[in-house]
């Protein structure tokens, strides 16, 4: 037994060793953790020492004792696992540490469990599982476990994830001093993150909003580098004021990094004025280390130099800045140079000379220093020294050459004043060798040559200078004086009869026009050459000096007459006392010219007075007689003018005189005699006479007669006496109720115009048309509707669409009083039989009157009639038979006043008869505008109907018939002048409109047995329509264009709108007219009774 026991002890020892090895076997060697605060803290805790090693040591010792019987070792506890987890953690094997910490977290005692949870959090953190670590840290903080260690780790994770709101309750757990540090860290993180999110490049608005949002951080000097970058961005975006303000805020921060503070100062220098930077730098140089202050001085010097470069050289500001630079860096050449020029400009010549001399001696190769010295010497009167310097320095640029030339010129002038002309000429030649265009030197050279008797060279020099041009007034005067001196010397040497005198005199007068004989000779020379503007001032000034000289007065008056200075010439002629024949003819001629000028200005009484004065001197002067007659005519006294025109026409027939006779007859209202005279004029052989007569016809609305009188091409009325054919498409839309007063109409007229002899014209038209009012209700309230209410049947539908046609023949005769007619029928093909329609009228110069019988075109009922849906009776097809007239006055030229009035009797098939009257007054003015005339004015129109019959029950006419209608407002019309290949006629009227209608019986022609009707039918049969009234803005407008295509085709189109009624109406159309002979313009070829082309079909009310 004793032999067996050692073997049992050895086996027990081996199994114990195996158990320990099994707990650590297969584990790699791990490195200790470092680099983080968290790991450093972990290494200081007691749980870093292993707990299994003492047990192993005890078992090893027991094995060496006397063998005893022992029980097997117990399994590891949760604390053992915690210790083992920390060993794995320290070695960096976080994956194997996690399950051990997880198991240990289930320990029943809180200390072990919390430590295990802390280890687990650190392991997760090392594995990059920050979310899981964060949750455990929050759990431990909630348990108030090791908050001094756990809170910083948790806040670091929340800071990394920018979870500011989640961190707030944990920040409150920190001590005051630590909490402030952590809050600043979070604030700095927000600042950096928000800046990172800004769009690049950021806008000034975004940057300002950023600063506003983080004002607290800025005031707390948080992330100053970010705000410095924002300031730089603001400056780059042009927001210099905001950038400067931000830089100033940053300077208020206690910046330990002096290099960063220097960067802020540099940034501020780029956006702040020099005065502010000067004050700031003075303050900043009182703080900071030596190196910082040295950098500030360098910055200040750089800013001062930059400021100096931007200032005007030699200014007082430049002087101040230079002094500051020299205070910082004595001997600075750029500052000394600026200060020297400042002294120079201020007249401190001694100081400037001292500085320039010093600079030139130190830097002889610098051009500007030598230049300043030379200018200063010249200014001080030390020209000799300046010339020595100028000849010594090597500079050959334009300015230095100008200095040398100026110095030589001074020496030449000094020699000239001493009458040393040879020396003067030598110095002036040197000046001109350098500066050939120096006019002062050349003029002085001229005087030098003149003094030496070289007049020929002087004149050549003067001529050369004049040819160069661009002379200043001073140089021009100097050249004039020099040339005058030579010319006067030459003139004094000439004989009075020498042919050279005129040449010399002209040149003298050109320079000094005061010599009498030379001026007189030159004045007549200018007059004979037609140079009146040059002769007039000479004669005028001479006459003032010598008023009794006849020759001068005669030259002056002839010049005035030719220049159109009639008033001056007449005043002179009446003032001087010369009475010879030549002077009498001059006076008559001037009176006649004054009369013509007054006539052109439309001062006809004055014109007649002057013409009478001319006739007093020359009674048989034909021009004076005609001008007197025309003046009488223009004053509204054609009876005085007519005998003169007829007498002159008989003595010397001419088209022009014929026009005057025609115009006078027309003015007297003798249109018949004017036409007779035009007929006689048109029968004369000369083409000009025929043309004059034709132009009279054309102007008085007789183009056919004009073309028959003068068939030559090239006139506005050419071939107006030739036939043509026209085809049109016209469309009209009138608003209203479907099936009743709504109307859509399409017309397709074809017209043949056939002129005849003596200004006559026939026209033949065929007008197919399509009418539609769209669908009516199944049982329309129309016709004898009460029959339907009484139980009667509906026999037929209302006519809502159909094709119709009508013919028309027209005739007109041109003459002193035009007359004509248009004869046709109402539309054929409707429910009611057609009746004749007609218009016959007369017109004069400014009046028109006609009688007519025309269709009323406001609905199918009024147009062609209807059949009663309930009885089959026909009714409708309304005609208006009446008279109307218009007259226009011209109270003043371009002004017009027009009145129109008319009466109509309206009747139809079984239609309640009606009567209407209307009146219109308008006035305005026509002004030329572009290729036509614009008429603008005001109008007022009134209309009255005896009865209101705008309904569709039996007996009514279906047309708008207010008891009272009134409209007034402005009216405009633009129309191009005739005789062109195109024309435009546009008009528009708008204004206040008011109308009122009467009550009206529903069945005005009711003749049924009322007692035989039921109650509903009786109520309807005896009922009435209520009147209504309305006031609103009314408008009507229309545009029509005509264009000539080639020589035979005339196209036109129009569009119009009108709401000056109880409905709205649109009209549009196109037409194409073919002329069998060529025409040359888009003139008006329609019947005079048709005010518009579409009126040819006589559908529109006036």
Report how far the terminal alpha carbons are from each other. Answer: 155 Å
The Cα radius of gyration reads 59 Å
Annotation field: number of helices: 43
Q: What's the overall average pLDDT, rounded?
A: 81
CATH class of the domain at 724-1097: Mainly Beta
So what's the oligomer here?
Answer: single chain
- Report the principal-axis shape: flat
CATH topology grouping of the domain at 724-1097:
Porin
What characterizes the major β-sheet?
Answer: 18 strands, antiparallel
Percentage of residues in helical conformation: 40-55%
Beta content comes to 15-25%
* Low-confidence residue ranges: 1-71, 1096-1102
Structural class: alpha+beta
CATH architecture of the domain at 724-1097: Beta Barrel
Strand tally is 20
């Amino acid at each position: 037994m004793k032999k067996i026991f050692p073997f049992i002890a050895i086996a027990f020892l081996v199994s114990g060793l195996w158990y320990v090895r099994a707990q650590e076997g297969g584990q790699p060697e791990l490195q200790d953790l470092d680099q983080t605060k968290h790991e450093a803290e972990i290494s200081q805790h007691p749980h870093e020492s292993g707990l299994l090693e003492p047990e192993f040591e005890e078992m090893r010792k027991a094995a060496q004792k006397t063998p005893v019987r022992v029980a097997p070792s117990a399994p590891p506890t949760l604390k053992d696992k915690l210790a083992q987890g920390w060993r794995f953690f320290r070695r960096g094997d976080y994956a194997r540490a996690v399950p051990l910490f997880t198991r240990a977290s289930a320990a029943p005692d809180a200390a072990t469990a919390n430590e295990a949870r802390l280890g687990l959090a650190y392991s997760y953190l090392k594995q990059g599982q920050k979310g899981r670590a964060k949750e455990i840290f929050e759990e431990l903080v909630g348990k108030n476990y090791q908050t001094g260690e756990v809170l910083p780790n948790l806040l670091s994770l929340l800071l990394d994830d920018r979870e500011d709101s989640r961190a707030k309750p944990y920040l409150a757990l920190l001590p005051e001093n630590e909490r402030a540090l952590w809050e600043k860290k979070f604030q700095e993180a927000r600042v950096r993150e928000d800046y990172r999110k800004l769009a690049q490049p950021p806008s000034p608005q975004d940057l300002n909003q950023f600063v506003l949002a983080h004002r607290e951080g800025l005031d707390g000097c948080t992330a100053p580098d970010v705000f410095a970058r924002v300031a730089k961005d603001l400056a780059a975006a042009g927001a210099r004021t905001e950038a400067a303000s931000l830089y100033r805020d940053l300077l208020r921060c206690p910046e330990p990094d002096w290099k960063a503070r220097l960067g802020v100062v540099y940034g501020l220098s780029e956006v702040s004025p020099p005065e502010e930077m000067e004050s700031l730098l003075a303050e900043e140089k009182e703080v900071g280390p030596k190196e910082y202050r040295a950098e500030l001085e360098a910055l200040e010097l750089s800013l001062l130099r930059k400021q100096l470069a931007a200032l005007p050289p030699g200014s007082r500001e430049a002087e101040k800045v230079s002094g500051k630079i020299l205070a910082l860096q004595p001997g600075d050449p750029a500052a000394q140079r600026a200060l020297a020029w400042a002294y120079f400009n201020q007249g401190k010549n001694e100081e400037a000379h001292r500085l320039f001399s010093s600079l030139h001696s130190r830097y002889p190769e610098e051009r500007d220093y030598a230049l300043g010295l030379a200018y200063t010497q010249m200014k001080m009167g030390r020209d000799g020294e300046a010339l020595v310097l100028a000849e010594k320095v090597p500079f050959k640029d334009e300015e230095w050459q100008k200095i040398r030339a100026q110095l030589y010129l001074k020496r030449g002038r000094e020699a000239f004043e001493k009458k040393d002309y040879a020396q003067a000429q030598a110095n002036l030649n040197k000046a001109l060798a350098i500066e050939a265009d120096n006019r002062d030197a050349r003029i002085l050279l001229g005087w030098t040559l003149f003094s030496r008797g070289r007049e020929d060279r002087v004149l050549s020099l003067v001529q050369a200078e004049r040819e160069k041009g661009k002379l200043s007034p001073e140089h021009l005067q100097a050249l004039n004086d020099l040339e005058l001196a030579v010319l006067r010397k030459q003139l004094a040497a000439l004989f009075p009869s020498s042919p050279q005198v005129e040449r010399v005199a002209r040149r003298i007068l050109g320079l000094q026009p005061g010599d009498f004989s030379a001026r007189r000779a030159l004045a007549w020379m200018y007059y004979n050459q037609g140079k009146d503007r040059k002769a007039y001032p000479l004669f005028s000034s001479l006459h003032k000096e010598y008023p009794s000289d006849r020759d001068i007065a005669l030259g002056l008056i002839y010049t005035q007459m030719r220049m159109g200075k009639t008033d001056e010439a007449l005043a002179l002629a009446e003032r001087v006392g010369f009475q010879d024949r030549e002077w009498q003819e001059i006076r008559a001629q001037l009176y006649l010219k004054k009369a013509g000028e007054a006539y052109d200005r439309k001062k006809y009484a004055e014109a007649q007075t002057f013409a009478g004065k001319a006739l007093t001197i020359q009674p048989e002067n034909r021009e004076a007689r005609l001008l007197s007659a025309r003046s009488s005519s223009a004053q509204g006294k054609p009876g005085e003018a007519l005998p003169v025109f007829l007498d002159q026409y008989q003595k010397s027939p001419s088209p022009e005189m014929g026009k005057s006779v025609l115009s006078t007859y027309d003015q007297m209202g003798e249109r018949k005699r004017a036409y007779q005279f035009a007929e006689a004029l048109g029968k004369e052989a000369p083409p000009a006479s025929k043309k004059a007569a034709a132009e009279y016809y054309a102007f008085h609305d007789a183009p056919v007669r004009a073309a028959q009188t003068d068939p030559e091409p090239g006139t506005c009325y050419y071939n107006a006496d030739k036939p043509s054919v026209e085809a049109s498409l016209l469309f009209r839309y009138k608003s209203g109720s479907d099936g009743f007063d709504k109307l859509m109409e399409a017309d397709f007229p074809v017209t043949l115009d056939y002129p005849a002899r003596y200004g006559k014209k026939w026209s033949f038209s065929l007008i197919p048309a399509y009418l539609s009012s769209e669908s009516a209700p199944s049982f329309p309230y129309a016709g004898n509707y009460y029959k339907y209410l009484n139980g009667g049947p509906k026999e037929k539908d209302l006519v809502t669409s159909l094709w119709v046609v009508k013919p028309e023949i027209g005739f007109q005769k041109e003459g002193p009083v035009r007359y004509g007619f248009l004869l046709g029928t109402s539309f054929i093909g409707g429910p009611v039989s057609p009746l004749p329609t007609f218009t016959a009228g007369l017109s004069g110069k400014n009046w028109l009157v006609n009688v007519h019988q025309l269709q009323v075109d406001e609905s199918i009922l009024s147009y062609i009639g209807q059949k009663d849906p309930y009885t089959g009776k026909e009714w409708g097809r309304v005609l208006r038979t009446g008279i109307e007239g218009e007259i226009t006055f011209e109270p003043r030229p371009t002004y017009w006043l027009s009145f129109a009035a008319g009466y109509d009797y309206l009747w139809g098939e079984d239609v309640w008869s009606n009567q209407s009257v209307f009146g219109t007054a308008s006035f305005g003015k026509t002004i030329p505008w572009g290729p036509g005339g614009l008429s603008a004015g005001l109008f007022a129109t009134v209309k009255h109907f005896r009865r209101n019959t705008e309904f569709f029950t039996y007996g009514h006419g279906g047309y708008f018939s207010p008891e009272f209608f009134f409209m007034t407002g402005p009216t405009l019309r633009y129309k191009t002048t005739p005789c062109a290949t195109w024309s435009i006629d546009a008009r528009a009227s708008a204004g206040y409109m008011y109308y009122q209608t009467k009550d009206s019986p529903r069945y005005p022609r009711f003749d049924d047995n009322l007692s035989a009707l039921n109650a509903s039918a009786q109520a309807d049969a005896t009922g009435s329509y209520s009147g209504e009234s309305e006031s609103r803005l009314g408008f009507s407008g229309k545009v029509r264009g005509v264009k000539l295509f080639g020589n035979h085709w005339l196209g036109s189109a129009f569009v119009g709108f009108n709401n000056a009624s109880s409905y709205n109406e649109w009209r549009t159309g196109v037409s194409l007219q073919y002329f069998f002979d060529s025409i040359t313009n888009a003139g008006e070829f329609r019947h005079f009774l048709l005010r518009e082309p579409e009126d040819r079909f006589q559908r529109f009310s006036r």
